[in-house]
């Protein structure tokens, strides 16, 4: 890490909630895929429309966990 170690040490001494808040602020400012609030609303509406129209289906908890745990052994074909 290139950050000043004193700064890092000080940050790590903060309560967890404050560290989380700082981390989220940094990610919000630096993420190349960050979307402004209005784009998030548009994307959420699009996804909701897909779900309601039947283009996609919702997953149950067990199916979601199975998908999260699945790790392909090679590139997709």
Chart the SSEs and their pairings.
Blueprint: H1 5-12, H2 16-30, H3 37-53, H4 61-69
Write up what this structure looks like.
The protein has about 80 residues and is an all-alpha fold. The chain has a domain at about 35-70. Helices cover about 65% and strands about 0% of the residues. The chain has helices spanning about 5-10, 15-30, 35-55, 60-70. The longest helix has 17 residues, at about 35-55. The mean pLDDT is about 80.
Count of helical stretches? 4
Q: Report the average pLDDT across residues.
A: 82
Largest sheet: none
Cα distance, first to last residue? 37 Å
Number of strands: 0
Q: Structural class, from helix and strand content? A: mainly alpha
Rg over alpha carbons: 19 Å
Q: What portion of residues belong to β-strands? A: under 5%
Keywords:
single chain, 77 residues, mainly alpha, 4 helices, 0% strand
Short characterization:
With 77 residues, the chain is mainly α.
């Amino acid at each position: 890490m290139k950050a000043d170690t004193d700064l890092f040490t000080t940050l790590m001494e903060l309560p967890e909630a404050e560290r989380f808040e700082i981390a989220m602020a940094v990610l919000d400012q630096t993420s190349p895929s960050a979307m402004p609030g209005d784009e998030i609303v548009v994307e959420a509406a699009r996804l909701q429309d897909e779900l309601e129209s039947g283009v996609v289906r919702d997953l149950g908890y067990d199916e979601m966990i199975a998908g999260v745990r699945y790790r392909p052994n090679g590139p997709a074909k």
